[in-house]
Each structure stands twice: as structure tokens, then as C-alpha cells.
Write a structure and sequence with these properties.
Layout: E1 17-18, E2 30-32, E3 47-56, E4 62-72, E5 75-86, E6 93-99, E7 115-116, E8 120-126, E9 134-143, E10 146-154, E11 161-163, E12 172-174, E13 183-201, E14 204-207, E15 210-219, H1 223-226, E16 229-237, E17 243-251, E18 267-275, E19 278-287, E20 300-306, E21 309-311, E22 316-318, E23 321-329, E24 338-346, E25 356-361, H2 362-365, H3 368-378, E26 383-397, E27 407-421
Antiparallel strand pairs: 1-12, 2-11, 3-4, 3-15, 4-5, 5-6, 7-8, 8-9, 9-10, 10-13, 12-13, 13-14, 13-15, 16-17, 16-27, 17-18, 18-19, 20-23, 21-22, 23-24, 24-26, 25-26, 26-27
């Protein structure tokens, strides 16, 4: 007779967060990307979907091109094209964010891995069996003073990934019921890419060639409820046939944890290492607030802040140093064993920063309708700290993984990293 009275009440101590990092054992973390994983979902409700390309150019500059699709309830979705370029030598920054018109996916004759608008086209291309089986071509007439012509390719050996196989691979769920979640978050990666093209900015043509990574993300919930903190890192080096180390980490709010309200503050970190041009391992780890993490776990994926100090501009305590750690089983058949890596970067203090590109006032950048809801509901003032510095990745690699080395190897490269403070 329970149907007469509605559903049974939810246990207040039931888990309200179900992290992808806890659903798969270490040897099943590397989930291959399927066609649907690269398609635009354009879901309704409160959903933010992004497609982002990060590349480090031959002249040392940092480049980011991003498409953002924001849905909010019954309002028509807002789509933005965001561009950022930073030259660490000259300190020159170029930034544009444009609300685009007539966004379409799929464009005529293509599938939903491609999209177009009046201001840009992003075209997916597939060449199965080749050394570069997948690519995106980005053409944009973003503003009167900015034009983009870029091809971003993925090599066959640097496979795209999500955490875990299948249609539910990659998803972390919010709420007590994973079949009818209150929200979700997912990230899918190309861990190492190569860009080739031209950026025309203020009439000057800039060669845009260099390595990077690509990520597709969907936040299926109001962004101020998904996480109170984010950490992201993207290390790239051309040494030893191509190396990358990437991580994405979120920390949940108090309402989302394994024992209901008040058990939040859960850290979920996912990442990967590309070594010798090959995807070497995928890492994922859940750190519960009431449990000390293992000192040397079989699978580790961690970002940590050190020596924080108050930034009066934002009122957040920001780190002077960040450490990143990876560990997991090799996914390269001819190089079995455990792959480990660590990286430490000095980003200075608020008074004397090192490599700081910008402190991004998030509410100033997101669409007006989204901003109104987020700021009204949460009362928060989120900021993203963006840094770009030389860095050294220290890897312990099993024999056969690197073409010319094994054991402990130090790899010089470049690191772009972000720390986001939401509340």
C-alpha cells in the first residue's frame, strides 16, 4: 500500500555522492572513448557543457579556445566562444568571450561531434588506422580583431579516455539515487594533442603550433552545487617522445558525501600520464574527509596546496606551492608495472606571484542568466587562479615505457594549472 502514500522517505545517512573514482578498480580506470562521448549532449535543465582546447605554442605562449553551452531551466541556452592567449615573455594577454548566434549541432552533413554558429565552426574528422586518427578543425571569426584557424590532432598512441568503460563510465552522481540523480559531472580527455594553425590578433598573424590537451566536460547541476573547490593541471613536454601529466579534481559541498548531509568535503581526482607518446596510465582517487589517504596507494591521483596566504583581492587563502601526484598500473602491454609521477610548482604569493596569468572573476565571465541564479542562490564570489610556469615532472617508469630510459626520470616541460575557489 506504499503507493498510496508516495515514496518511502530517504535515509538521512544514505550516500548523497557517488564518485566515479570509487567505482572502478585500478586496472579498469582507462575507459576508451566512444562516439557518443565526443558528441554534444545539449541537455535541458541546469547543465553546463564545455569543449576546451589547451595548447602551448612554439614561441612559449599559452593558448585556450573553449566553447561553452549553458542551459538553465526554461530559458533558451546561451553559447559562448572564449579565447585566451598569454605570452610569458612579453606578458601580453589576449582575451575574448563572445555570445554566439545560431548555434547548431550537428551541422549539415556532419554528426554531433561537430558544431557551428555564425561566429565559428568546430569540425570533427576521423581517419581510422592512421597515425593521427582523430582531429578537430576550428575556424572562427570571433571579433573584428580576432580570427582563429586551427587544427588539433590526437595521435593513435595517446588514446582518449574517461574513467571506466561503458555508457556510465566517467560519471560521478549527486543525490541518494544514482538512477535518478540530482546532478552529475563527467570529464572526457584527449591527454596529448598537437595544434597547428594561425591566430590573427589585431592584424598580426601568430603561428599557433604546439602540444596540449583537449577536454569535454558536462556539469549536470548548478555549478555552485557541484563543487566548492577545483584543481586542474596540464603538464606538457616534447622530451622522450612526448610526455603529459593532467589532472582534474573537485571537492564537494557539505551536503554531498557518503553519509548524507554534513559528510561532504569529498575530493575526487582523475588524471593520466602520457609517456613516450603513449597513454601510460589513467589515475583516479577518492579522498574522504574522515579517512587519511594511503601513503603509497596502488592508485593515486592527488593535488595539494601548501603555504596558503590571504589574497585581499579575493578574500581566499591561496597556495604558494602546489604538488601533484599520479600512480597507477601501466596500460601499455609491452611495459607492464606501476607508473608513478610527481610535480611541484612554486606560484609565489598574492603580493609576489610567479607565473600568474590572471585571477578570473567567474561571475563576470558567465552568461547573465546563469550569473543571476548562481549569485542569488549561493551568495558566492568564485575566482579561478590561472598560472603558467616551467616545471619538472619526475616519473618512475617501468622498463619499456620510455624509448631511451627507465626507472626515475626527470622531464622538463611547461605547466598550466588552475585553482578555483567557489565558496
Amino acid at each position: 500500500m506504499s503507493w498510496l502514500w508516495g515514496a518511502s522517505p530517504v535515509d538521512p545517512t544514505a550516500p548523497t555522492f557517488h564518485p566515479v573514482s570509487s567505482r572502478f578498480p585500478p586496472n579498469e580506470l582507462a575507459g576508451p572513448l566512444e562516439t557518443k562521448d565526443l558528441e554534444w549532449a545539449c541537455a535541458g535543465g541546469f547543465v553546463t557543457e564545455t569543449q576546451t582546447f589547451y595548447n602551448f605554442l612554439d614561441d612559449g605562449s599559452f593558448l585556450m579556445v573553449q566553447v561553452v553551452h549553458s542551459s538553465i531551466g526554461v530559458w533558451y541556452p546561451t553559447v559562448q566562444l572564449t579565447f585566451k592567449m598569454y605570452n610569458p615573455t612579453t606578458k601580453e594577454k589576449a582575451w575574448r568571450s563572445v555570445n554566439v548566434a545560431n548555434f547548431v549541432t550537428p551541422p549539415p552533413g556532419l554528426d554531433k561531434r561537430s558544431c557551428k554558429s555564425d561566429q565559428f565552426t568546430v569540425t570533427y574528422k576521423s581517419k581510422p588506422g592512421s597515425d593521427e586518427p582523430e582531429s578537430y578543425t576550428i575556424q572562427a571569426n570571433a571579433t573584428d580583431d580576432l580570427q582563429i584557424s586551427l587544427e588539433v590532432t590526437r595521435s593513435a598512441s595517446a588514446s582518449g579516455w574517461k574513467v571506466g568503460k561503458g555508457p556510465k563510465g566517467g560519471f560521478s552522481y549527486y543525490g541518494p539515487d544514482t538512477e535518478n540523480p540530482e546532478g552529475y559531472v563527467i570529464h572526457r580527455f584527449w591527454p596529448r594533442t598537437m595544434a597547428k594553425g594561425i591566430i590573427v590578433y589585431k592584424g598580426k598573424a601568430i603561428t599557433a603550433n604546439g602540444p596540449g590537451m583537449h577536454v569535454r566536460a558536462i556539469l549536470g547541476m548548478r555549478p555552485n552545487l557541484i563543487a566548492s573547490r577545483w584543481n586542474f593541471c596540464d603538464f606538457q613536454s616534447d622530451q622522450h617522445g612526448g610526455v603529459s601529466g593532467i589532472q582534474m579534481e573537485l571537492t564537494t559541498y557539505e551536503g554531498y558525501g557518503r553519509r548524507g548531509a554534513g559528510s561532504g568535503g569529498v575530493k575526487v581526482n582523475i588524471g593520466s600520464l602520457v609517456v613516450g607518446g603513449k597513454l601510460a596510465c589513467v589515475t583516479a582517487e577518492t579522498i574522504w574527509p574522515d579517512e587519511a589517504p594511503a601513503e603509497d596507494g596502488q592508485a593515486m591521483s592527488r593535488a595539494s596546496h601548501h603555504d596558503p596566504s590571504l589574497d585581499n583581492d579575493t578574500t581566499y587563502h591561496v597556495p604558494a606551492r602546489l604538488d601533484y601526484v599520479w600512480a597507477g598500473p601501466s596500460v601499455v602491454p609491452e611495459a607492464p608495472g606501476r607508473v608513478k609521477a610527481k610535480l611541484s610548482v612554486d606560484v609565489g604569493t598574492p603580493a609576489e606571484p610567479k607565473g600568474l596569468i590572471e585571477k578570473v572573476d567567474v561571475l563576470a565571465e558567465i552568461p547573465t542568466v546563469v550569473k543571476t541564479v548562481v549569485s542569488y542562490v549561493s551568495g558566492t564570489q568564485p575566482y579561478i587562479y590561472q598560472w603558467y610556469n616551467p616545471a619538472t615532472l619526475k616519473i618512475n617508469a617501468p622498463a619499456g615505457l620510455l624509448p631511451d630510459a627507465s626507472g626515475d626520470v626527470s622531464i622538463a616541460g611547461t605547466l598550466y594549472n588552475e585553482s578555483t575557489f567557489v565558496s
